[in-house]
Design a protein that fits this description.
The chain is an alpha+beta fold. Helices cover about 50% and strands about 15% of the residues. It binds arginine (ARG) and glutamic acid. The site of arginine has 10 residues, from helix 11 and helix 13.
Length: about 775
C-alpha cells in the first residue's frame, strides 16, 4: 500500500519511467505549471485503474498502457486524434446536458430516452401520445424537428494554461485574477478563424486551462423513441437501482447543409455525414470484460477535505433529503388518491425524486466506505509529509487547516442556501411562478405602460402551460410544511423586514398566514380572472400582485438569496478556490504517486473499467447482466411504472429475438466499474475495440457517492445492452431500416459462445 492507501502495481512503475522518458524527449519547458501537469501525469501509474474521468488527448501519455493491460485493443490515437478521424468524432454533446453518439454514416444519433424526453414530450399530444406509445419515423420525411436542440462535436482541445494565466500574479485578489483570465480567454477565442464554437475551461481548480473547439449542429431531428413503458420502465422505483430493466434510449438524426456544415433547420438540409461513426458489436459482454465510456460528465468534487465530506453526510444531504421527504409525501398521497393529479405531477415527482434518491444513496455509500475516515487518514499523512520537508513547510504549512476551517465557517450559509433552494425555489410552485413576473413588475415600476401591456398579454397567453399541471391545494400543503423550515434556516444578516416579521410568528400564526396567502394569491385563486386582468388591466394586475403576501414573501426570499446569501457564498468560493487550487498542487507534490484526474466540468472525458458485479450489503451479491425474463418478472399490468406493451409480451412468449439474443435469452442491462456522473447519460459504452456495446444511463444507488469518493467496491455505472436497443428498434418497432443503416459487427460463433454469465468477482 502506498501512503494514500491504494495498491501500487508493479507495472505502473515501469509505466512511470516510460512516461518520464516521453516527457523529457518532448523537451518540455518545465515551468512550475508544467511541472504540476507533469506531476499529475507521472502520478497516474499507481492508481486503481478504474477510477477517473480522463482527458482524451492525454490518454496516450497517461492511460493507454493501463487500458491496454485491462483489455483495450485499440490505440490512444484511435480514441482521440487531431490529424485523423477518431472515436472522438462520433461523440456528441447533446443539448448541452447529455451525451449522444453517431451510429451511421447518415448522422443517426443515439442517446437516452430521458435525454430526449422533453423533445418527445413536446411532439406529444392526447392524439399522438409519443411518450406513452413511442414514436418511429419510417422515413426521413417523418422525422420531427426540434428547435433549440444542439449536437456539438469536439474538433480539438489543447492546453492554453500559459496564455490564460498571462499577467496573473500569485497575490492577485480573486476577482482581479478572474477578470484577467476572462480577458485572456476572450483574446484567445477572438483570434480563432474557423467556423467553430470555442470555450476555455478551467481544470484542477484553475491550475490548468484547456481550449476546446466544437462544431455545433442545430438541425437535430427525432427519429424514434420507445414507449415510456420500455424507455422509462421501472420509472422512479427502479431509478438509480440495480438490477435494472430499462430500455432507456431514443434516436435522433443530425442534419447539415449541402456542404455537410452545421446549419439552422431547413428542408434543404441533408443527413450529416460524420467523420466517424461507431461500429455496433452484437457480441455482448461477460464479467471482467474491458469497457470504456466516452462522454461529457457534468460535475464532480473529488478533492474536498474530510470535514466537508462529513458536512455532506451529516448535514447537507440529510437536510435536503428531509425537505424532499416532506414534499414527496404530500405529492404521493394525492397522486395515489387521484388519477388526474398523478398525471399532472408525474414529471415533477420524477424530477424531485431523482436527486432525493441519489442523495440517500450517496450518504449510504459514503458511510459504508468510511469516506470521511479515509480522507482524514490521507490528510494526516499529508500534514506529516509537509512537516518533514522544509520546502513543503514553507509553501503549504497551514493550508489544509485553513481550507477546512473555511468550509466549516461557510456551513451555516451553505445550509441556508440549500434550504432556500429546496423549500422555496424548487419546493414551492407558487413562489417559482411568481418569480416569473419580475420582468412585468420592472416594466410597471419603470412606468413603461405600453410595453407592460404587450408583455402582460403575452404572459397571460403562456399561463395555460403552468395551470395545466398545477394543483393549488397540493402547493398550499407544501408551503405549510416547508415555510417553517425556510424561516428557521434564513438567518444570514441583514434579513429583510418581511422575513423578520414572519420569523417572529408562532406555528399557529404561520398556518393562518399561509392559508390566507393562498386564498388571496391572484394567479392561482382564479386563473381565468387573472388572465383577463393581465390582458385588460395589466397595471392594476401587477400593482395588486405586488401588494400581495404571496409576492412579498417571494421577493423577500429572492432578494435575500440574490443580494445577501449569494454574494457571501461567492466570497467564500473565491477564497476556497485559491486554497483548493494550491491544495491540488500540494497533493501532487506531496504524493507524487497519488491519482489526480481533473473533476468533471462538462468537457469530453474517457472513463474505463470492467464489467463487474458487486456486494451492496452483507450476504447480497449482484450479477452483472439482466435479461428480458427480469422485465417480465417485474411486470404489473396497468401499473404506471411496471406496465408493458402487449407486443413486448408477445415477443417474449415467442422468444422472437432474432440475432440480438444471447443464447436463448434477451439481454437488457449490464453494469461496469466506469467512473461516470450526470451528463454521462447517453454516453456510448465501448468494448476493447472501440465498438458500441451499450448505452450509459445511470449509476447504482450505493455508488452515487462517486461524485466525491469513487470506491471500486460499490461504484458501478448502468448501461442498456445495445442488443436490447436494436431488438426494440427492429423487432418491437419494425424500424429495421435503421439497423440496416448501421455497421454491425457480429463476432464469430466460437467467440460468441462464452461461459454462462454468473456472479462477477467483486472489486478487483
Ligand atoms: N437517474 C438518472 C439520471 O440521473 C435517470 C433519471 C431519469 N429517470 C427518472 N426516473 N427520473 O439522470
Ligand atoms: N442519469 C444521469 C444523467 O442524466 C446519469 C446517471 C449518473 O448521474 O451517473 O446524466
Amino acid at each position: 500500500m502506498n501512503p494514500v492507501g491504494y495498491p501500487i502495481n508493479a507495472r505502473s512503475k515501469i509505466y512511470l519511467t516510460i512516461t518520464i522518458a516521453n516527457m523529457l524527449s518532448m523537451k518540455l519547458l518545465v515551468t512550475r505549471m508544467q511541472a504540476f501537469i507533469l506531476a499529475l501525469l507521472v502520478s497516474i501509474g499507481s492508481l486503481q485503474a478504474k477510477e477517473g474521468m480522463w482527458i482524451p488527448y492525454l490518454i496516450g501519455a497517461v492511460n493507454a498502457d493501463d487500458m491496454t493491460a485491462m483489455g483495450m485493443e485499440i490505440s490512444a490515437e484511435d480514441i482521440y486524434s487531431i490529424n485523423n478521424s477518431s472515436l472522438k468524432d462520433a461523440i456528441v454533446h447533446f443539448g448541452g446536458g447529455c451525451t449522444a453518439e453517431l451510429i451511421s454514416k447518415k448522422g443517426l444519433l443515439l442517446t437516452n430516452h430521458h435525454c430526449g424526453y422533453s423533445q418527445i414530450q413536446s411532439h406529444s399530444s392526447l392524439k399522438n401520445d409519443y411518450l406513452k406509445n413511442g414514436f418511429w419515423a419510417m422515413n426521413g420525411k417523418e422525422e420531427l424537428k426540434n428547435p433549440g436542440l444542439t449536437a456539438a462535436i469536439v474538433k480539438y482541445m489543447r492546453e492554453v494554461t500559459n496564455q490564460a494565466l498571462m499577467g496573473v500574479t500569485a497575490t492577485m485578489p480573486a476577482a482581479e485574477r478572474e477578470a484577467k483570465i476572462q480577458e485572456n480567454i476572450k483574446s484567445i477565442v477572438e483570434a480563432q478563424k474557423e467556423p467553430y464554437e470555442y470555450e476555455v475551461k478551467a481544470f484542477y481548480y484553475g491550475n490548468q486551462y484547456i481550449f476546446i473547439a466544437k462544431e455545433v449542429f442545430k438541425d437535430v431531428r427525432l427519429v424514434g423513441a420507445p414507449p415510456s413503458s420500455i424507455g422509462k420502465y421501472g420509472a422512479d422505483t427502479d431509478n438509480w437501482v440495480w438490477p435494472r430493466h430499462t430500455g432507456d434510449f431514443s434516436i435522433f438524426r443530425v442534419y447539415a447543409d449541402k456542404e455537410n456544415q452545421p446549419a439552422e433547420y431547413s428542408e434543404e438540409n441533408v443527413p450529416y455525414t460524420p467523420l466517424r461513426h461507431l461500429m455496433v458489436n452484437l457480441g455482448g459482454t461477460k464479467p471482467n470484460d474491458f469497457t470504456m465510456v466516452y462522454g461529457f460528465p457534468g460535475t464532480t468534487n473529488e478533492y474536498l477535505p474530510s470535514n466537508e465530506i462529513a458536512n455532506i453526510v451529516n448535514d447537507y444531504d440529510p437536510a435536503r433529503i428531509a425537505v424532499r421527504d416532506a414534499l414527496l409525501a404530500i405529492l404521493d398521497k394525492k397522486m395515489r388518491e387521484n388519477d388526474e393529479t398523478r398525471i399532472k405531477y408525474a414529471s415533477k415527482y420524477a424530477r424531485i425524486s431523482n436527486a432525493w434518491k441519489k442523495w440517500q444513496g450517496e450518504v449510504l455509500g459514503l458511510t459504508a466506505t468510511d469516506a470521511v475516515g479515509k480522507k482524514q487518514k490521507m490528510e494526516e499523512q499529508f500534514e506529516e509529509a509537509i512537516a518533514k520537508n522544509d520546502v513543503f513547510t514553507k509553501e503549504y504549512s497551514g493550508l489544509l487547516k485553513q481550507m477546512k476551517s473555511l468550509y466549516d465557517e461557510r456551513k451555516p450559509l451553505t445550509l441556508e442556501r440549500y434550504m432556500y433552494l429546496e423549500t422555496m425555489y424548487y419546493g414551492n410552485e407558487l413562489v417559482k411562478h411568481l418569480l416569473g413576473y419580475r420582468g412585468l413588475v420592472k416594466l410597471y415600476e419603470d412606468g413603461k405602460d405600453e410595453e407592460l401591456a404587450t408583455e402582460a398579454a403575452k404572459f397571460a397567453d403562456r399561463l395555460d402551460g403552468f395551470y395545466k399541471d398545477y394543483d393549488v391545494e397540493l402547493d398550499r400543503q407544501a408551503m405549510q410544511a416547508l415555510l417553517p423550515v425556510y424561516l428557521k434556516a434564513a438567518s444570514t444578516e441583514p434579513l429583510p423586514e418581511y422575513l423578520k416579521g414572519l420569523k417572529g410568528k408562532s406555528p399557529e400564526q404561520i398556518e393562518k398566514y399561509v392559508n390566507n396567502l393562498y386564498a388571496k394569491a391572484l394567479p392561482v385563486k382564479d386563473s381565468e380572472a387573472w388572465k383577463q386582468m393581465l390582458k385588460e388591466n395589466p397595471k392594476k394586475a401587477i400593482k395588486s400582485l405586488n401588494k400581495s403576501d404571496a409576492m412579498k414573501l417571494t421577493m423577500a426570499g429572492w432578494d435575500h438569496f440574490i443580494n445577501v446569501v449569494n454574494p457571501k457564498t461567492r466570497d467564500y468560493e473565491d477564497k476556497l478556490d485559491v486554497l483548493q487550487r494550491k491544495y491540488l498542487l500540494a497533493l501532487s507534490e506531496v504524493f507524487p504517486t497519488k491519482m489526480m484526474y481533473p473533476d468533471a466540468n462538462s468537457t469530453l472525458r474517457v472513463a474505463y473499467g470492467k464489467v463487474h458485479g458487486y456486494e451492496p450489503r452483507d450476504g447480497v451479491e449482484y450479477a452483472t447482466h439482466t435479461y428480458l425474463d427480469g422485465v417480465i418478472e417485474k411486470y404489473i399490468p396497468g401499473d404506471y411504472e411496471f406496465d408493458l406493451p402487449q407486443k413486448m409480451l408477445n415477443l417474449y412468449n415467442t422468444k422472437d429475438y432474432g440475432r440480438y439474443a444471447d443464447g436463448d435469452k434477451m439481454p437488457v442491462c449490464f453494469i461496469a466499474s466506469n467512473h461516470t456522473t450526470g451528463g454521462n447519460s447517453g454516453s456510448p459504452a465501448l468494448n476493447g475495440r472501440g465498438e458500441l456495446i451499450g448505452l450509459n444511463f445511470d449509476r447504482t444507488w450505493e455508488g452515487t457517492m462517486s461524485d466525491y469518493n469513487y470506491d471500486v467496491s460499490l461504484c458501478r455505472n448502468i448501461m442498456v445492452d445495445i442488443r436490447y436497443v436494436l431488438f426494440i428498434v427492429d423487432k418491437f418497432a419494425g424500424a429495421g431500416y435503421l439497423v440496416d443503416e448501421m455497421d454491425i459487427v457480429v463476432p464469430a460463433i466460437e467467440e460468441k459462445k462464452k461461459e454462462p454469465v454468473d456472479m462477477a468477482p467483486v472489486g478487483n
